[in-house]
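[job 0412] stage=complex_fold ligand=manganese (II) ion status=START
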Amino acid sequence: MDKTSLEQERSEILKRYRSLLTVCRPTIKKEDRKRIRQAFDFATKAHKDHRRKSGEPYIYHPIAVAKIVVEEIGLGATSVVCSLLHDVVEDTDYNLDDISEYFDEEVSRIIDGLTKISDIFDQTTSIQAENFRKMLLTLSDDVRVILIKLADRLHNMRTLDSLPPKKQLKVANETLYLFAPLAHRLGFHAIKSELEDLAMKYTEPEVYQTILQKLADTKEERNRFIQSFTKPIKKTLQQENLGFNILARTKSVSSIWGKMKKKEVPFDEVYDIFAIRIILHSPDEREKADCWKAYSIVTDIYQPNPDRLRDWISTPKANGYESLHTTVMSRTGKWVEVQIRTARMDEVAEKGYAAHWKYKESKSGESGIDKWLRRIREILKSAETDALDFIDDFKLNLFSDEIIVFTPKGELRTLPVGSTALDFAYSIHTQVGNNCLGAKVGHKLVPLSHQLKSGDQVEIITSKKQVPKPDWLNYVTTARAKGKIKSALKEQKKKQADEGREILERKLKQFKIDQTQENIQKLMTHFKLPAPLDLYYEVAIGNIGQKELKAYAIDQEGGGILSYIRNPFAKSRDTQQQPPASHDPIRQQLKDKPDTLLIGDNMENLTYKLSPCCNPIPGDDVFGFVSIQDGIKIHRNNCPNAVQLLSKYAYRVVKAKWTTSKSIAFLSGLRLRGIDEVGLLQSITNTISSEYNVNIRNIHIDTHDGTFEGEVMLYIHDTQHLNNLIKKLKKIKGIQKVSRIGKMES
Ligand code: MN
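[job 0412] stage=complex_fold status=DONE, emitting structure tokens
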């Protein structure tokens, strides 16, 4: 570029800067001029070799954004400074430290937020509206970040022509989807309409041009109509001494198109292509009264549609909009919308709340703006829903409990407050979570349990060898991570359990125990485990090994759970089996074992127990069996387990006989079956308790389709005693069968 054109550029830059200062003059204090100048110089230097896609010097853009920020949004000096610097960190060699060096803390904080938001928009994937708003709120403790971003987008949309078509579409769609609703929500009606029209120019160029053309074609006719429509209104307003302006506001192209689509009508049938706006110059205290007075005048002249009265003066919209709308019938038979508002209301409607606070605080500077900014934050956070409102409002309530963090590539992740590096890993991908070793947050190594905060950039370190550990459950907050860890642990356990199952089967074989469902149940009870999976798992990890199983087997043989009678051909080998030498307790017991055990004399010092599998009572033929945990157990000779015990472990059998006196009661059980009859239970209990010296311990009866099956556990003296009782029970009407529990049924 030659010298003269460089000179020209330089003077153009200064010219634009001066026009910014002109705009600032009414609202920005003199002492702030210095900061603005400093920012301008800094930005000019930083962007000096930098051009926009259009070929213009880059600094035109920050100057334009700063101007929008003051003129159209209504912000103050700090925002002007930040607008001038908003692309420095993002696009030049200067970093945030450089900013902090020259500018205050507040400025660098805002620039940091702006830079982070830019990072996100540079992603190729489209950002979702929900994330967008959360991101804006999270990254910007300061609402000014959002507002400067909005100004930035507005200027980019105004200059979108110079971008390649593909990029135009992306930016235009993003604007429609995210920024226009944001502007609407904040009450920047003019910005919202402009953004929508600018976007439509690129997203639907043909429709856009057609409607634009039709508006131009009908302009003259419209003006004539407006003239005659407003004439009687003007006259009466003057007679009533109301100060006023009357404007005709044409709808934006995009909202006309919206109406055409929604009502399925052609351009000519959109009745409210324009609206008549009456702006009253009323003092504060008469605003409302004057508006209603004007309403009364208009509706005296034209017939109003009662369904179309909107009073946003008594109840302003959430975004601050105040106005009175009515739709009246014109003399040509067309409906016309009339908007009535004061000058103050009009400025608020066009420029949003900034204007409102300007009025409220009577230009007292930052404090008014601060209040306004706080109000904007409230609007952004509020769950209030407008018909046209932001998408995903329902998620808002959750918002304050969330943090926003970034992947190394700058992708955004939303997580609940308290989330850790491990939660983050699982939010990326289950496998990343499962293989997570640790993380780097801002290039610093942190453990899995490290709690993240908003704005953290997190890199997960993985290893293929890593697998989830049970204590990981203490490190995570998200339901997703918890679920994934649990299912990974379960999967691991299942795999190990499969191995454990085989190991168990092999081991049980050594003890001649079959892996039947019943035996697994007994093992579970013995080892106090809730499920077979747990049993297999404990075997797999070695918590239940040879020693434990052996102890169990020996014990159970004594206890007689082995209802399963084995192949008799195995007998000879079994009988030769020697007592395991390693088991001292049993060897000791065997050494001490008596020739004949006399049962029943002295219940207090029993060195034996009556086995619960057959509940022997005096009179039964019995034998004693040396068990490891419960000492000697007494079984009936006809106990279901007797054959096996006697054949396999003959060396552990002790002869036993009763020497009882009648004073001792033994627990015995009866099983009853029959037809369910009225009063049956009572008959059974009466019969049992009328028998001398019998006590019922418990009774349990199930009835099913007219039949019953029951068990009675009772204390009884001997077999004769019991047999008597059985006979009596059998005589009860309805009872078909009575048998002793523990006796094999024939
Ligand atoms: Mn920019």
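Residues 61, 86-87, 152 surround manganese (II) ion (CB under 6 Å).
[job 0412] exit 0
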